[in-house]
Design goal:
The structure holds 2 protein chains of 2 kinds.
Chain A lengths: L10 E12 L2 E8 L10 E6 L3 E5 L11 E6 L3 H6 L7 E8 L5 H4 L3 E7 L3 H13 L6 E8 L8 H7 L6 E6 L9 E2 L17 E5 L2 H14 L6 E4 L15 E2 L2 E2 L6 E3 H4 L8
Parallel strand pairs in A: 7-8, 7-11, 8-9, 9-10, 11-12
Antiparallel strand pairs in A: 1-2, 1-6, 2-5, 3-4, 3-6, 12-15, 13-14
Chain B lengths: L2 E4 L1 H11 L4 E8 L2 E6 L6 H9 L22 E6 L13 E6 L1 H14 L7 H9 L1 E5 L25 E6 L2 E6 L2 H9 L4 E3 L2 H25 L10 H4 L5 H6 L7 H4 L7 E7 L4 E7 L20 H20 L9 H5 L6 H10 L2
Parallel strand pairs in B: 2-5, 5-6, 6-7
Antiparallel strand pairs in B: 1-8, 1-9, 2-3, 4-11, 7-8, 10-11
Classes of the chains: A alpha/beta, B alpha/beta.
């Protein structure tokens, strides 16, 4: 829970494991000194002491309460340093912040999860939730895309998902290599023909803004209602409390009212994809 | 509400007594501007009293150069000390701010909403709000950038003060606005006498005169009343106004720093051999990387988008979420802007272009 005494203070946290996922993404297993329970889709702020902090959505099971996993893409000053972290080092955690996926609203429904690139990180946590409550959803589909086969996060694990009988998985890459046998093309090319009632189904999209923009457009064309579309907005979230002002989207703050938004709530705001 | 009269010497005594429990700040005039300065009574009471008399302290007059928010959200302050749960406070005594004006007091409406009355609380701000003492004052003069009445702010405080002073020939008419203020008057009853009808009349006359001068300002600059601002941002979202007005902007951020309602901040960490400190500094939405994400994407890549965003926040976001225009008519951003970007002109253009 967020620290009401001093919400800016990070909790001392040990780095338990560092695993290289792709050339630009590493997954860290972290153990905070105080319990930090999150709901899937909520995010945390990870502090590298003396360097700064950056927001990440945990990719681990919300049910596991003593450790937390985050997958970090190397893109800036803080993530550069996170990639240098070794087992045993001390970092800080704040959070969880924001509004995650409304799992109860998905019960009894057909659900399509669409992921792109580093968007797989929050979605892995979400998929664990779906698997945990497998019987409560009518059907579950996962469609994921990456730039090239070597950019897939949790590759082994996702291959395992395709063995599950409660999930229908299909993957694509923008650009194949010698070994890739699956679809080649952006993620919107594998959204046709999913055996679900589009008008009633839920679609959850997480990935880079440009991917979400086109995925939403495609899903609308397929008949999904705006009130059934969920996305994760990538904004400059810093304080996590709706105060520092950096991540405003219209009348909301991504850090507080999001990062997960139902599309109809934000679609009227100008330039949401920029 | 009971009104009292306190003489200039009496106020000086009161402030001197208050320094036991508060760090007292009083506006002092330097050139054409007024600045909050620490009140340090000289050892000789007679000499000090003269300082009050000869106009070093300007309780009435008009708003200070700095916004009142400097006492509530330091421009640079520590918000976390390593992994410790508490932060040692730099200033041991709370602040007593004397001579705060109505435009600055309106700033609280915005700051309170963000830092105190929101679902998530800011403990540092709340502590300042609870512990500080505000001895506000009516405006006794007007400068040409004043337009508070256009934002429905009267040039005299009506709320959020502990004691309010109205400067006049015989000293000050004083009224309490809180339990804390009432207590302070009661505990120092010998310094106060009951205000007579003539004092009240003089105060009311002055309030009327000052309001008249602000109205003249508003008329001379053709500044729209806030009743005409509803929806103007949405309607002008794609108007050429933003590009035209941003042309001279040098991205200094002075308009944000000086604004009583701007609340955005940046956090950064500092570390020496042993400890980490997290600092909070005021931030400016006019600076290029304000909304930029680590990957480099920037929703407001152009300066004109950031100028539009500043107006959107004040005249669209806050009215929508809190039914308040986040402008107090203090005019500080007009004086602070080296590029002569004038909020009065922009508001006028927005209203005319619907």
């Amino acid at each position: 829970m967020y620290n009401s005494h001093n919400p800016y203070r990070p909790i001392e946290t040990a780095v338990l494991e560092v695993n290289t996922e792709t050339p630009t993404i590493k997954t860290l297993k972290l153990k905070p000194k105080e319990p930090l329970e999150f709901e899937t889709g909520q995010f945390i702020e990870l502090t590298v002491p003396g360097v700064g902090e950056a927001p990440f959505t945990p990719s681990s099971k919300p049910l596991i309460k003593d450790t937390i996993e985050v997958s970090v893409m190397r893109v800036g000053k803080v993530t550069e340093r996170i990639h240098e972290l070794k087992k045993g080092e001390t970092v800080g955690l704040r959070g969880p912040f924001g509004t995650g996926y409304p799992m109860d609203d998905f019960k009894g429904r057909e659900v399509l999860v669409v992921g792109g690139g580093c968007g797989f990180a929050p979605l892995r946590s979400l998929m664990y939730e779906f698997f945990e409550h497998s019987g409560e959803f009518k059907s579950l589909f996962f469609r994921g895309g990456c730039k090239t086969p070597k950019d897939f996060l949790y590759k082994k694990e996702i291959e395992g998902w395709s063995q599950r009988d409660d999930l229908d998985v299909r993957l694509t890459v923008d650009e194949g290599d010698g070994e890739w046998k699956g679809n080649v093309g952006v993620v919107t090319t594998i959204l046709d023909g999913i055996p679900m009632n589009h008008a009633e189904g839920i679609a959850i999209v997480c990935g880079p803004p440009v991917m979400m923009k086109f995925a939403i457009k495609k899903l609308q064309e397929l008949g999904f209602k705006d009130t059934n579309l969920y996305l994760s907005m990538e904004k400059n979230m810093s304080c996590g409390l709706g105060k520092c002002g950096h991540c405003r989207i219209g009348t909301y703050y991504a850090c507080k009212d999001g990062p997960v938004f139902r599309y109809d709530k934000i679609k009227s705001f100008p330039n949401i994809w920029d | 509400m009971a009104a009292y009269l306190i003489s200039r010497d009496g106020l000086f005594d009161l402030l001197t007594r208050v320094t036991d429990s508060y760090s007292v700040f009083v506006p002092v005039r330097r050139g054409e501007k007024r600045f909050f300065t620490k009140f340090e009574p000289s050892s000789s009471p007679e000499e000090s009293s003269k300082e009050m008399e000869n106009g070093r302290y300007v309780i009435g007059e008009v708003r200070t150069f700095e916004p009142l928010k400097i006492f509530y959200l330091r421009s640079r302050g520590i918000v976390a000390d390593g992994f410790e749960d508490t932060v040692t406070r730099a200033e041991q005594k709370p602040y007593c701010i004397v001579g705060a004006k109505a435009c600055d007091i309106k700033g609280f409406k915005v700051q309170d909403r963000v830092f105190r009355d929101d679902e998530y609380k800011d403990p540092f701000y709340i502590r300042e709000r609870e512990e500080n003492l505000i001895i506000s004052a009516d405006c006794a003069s007007v400068i040409d950038t004043c337009y508070c009445l256009a934002l429905h702010v009267n040039p005299y405080p009506e709320e959020s003060f502990d004691i309010n002073l109205s400067e006049m020939s015989a000293g000050f008419v004083a009224e309490s606005g809180s339990e804390k203020g009432k207590r302070l008057i009661n505990e120092n009853a010998s310094l106060f006498q009951e205000a007579k009808a003539e004092h009240i009349a003089e105060r009311d006359e002055q309030r009327k005169r000052i309001a008249g001068e602000v109205k003249k300002n508003i008329k001379a600059n053709d500044i729209p009343d806030q009743d005409r601002l509803k929806g103007v941002i949405e309607k002008n979202f794609n108007a050429p106004i933003w590009k035209e007005e941003a042309e001279t902007c040098v991205e200094c951020g002075a308009c944000n720093m000086i604004c009583p309602t701007c609340h955005c901040f940046l956090m950064y960490d500092q570390m020496d051999a042993q400890r980490m400190a997290r600092l909070r500094v005021w931030d400016s939405c006019m600076i290029k990387d304000f909304a930029q994400v680590a990957g480099g994407a920037n929703p407001r890549d152009h300066l004109w988008m950031r100028l539009r965003n500043r107006f959107e926040k004040k005249f669209d976001y806050f009215p929508k979420i809190g039914d308040i225009y986040a402008c107090t008519g203090c005019g500080r951003c007009i004086s602070a802007c080296p590029a002569k970007i004038d909020i009065r002109r922009i508001l006028k253009r927005l209203v005319e272009n619907v």
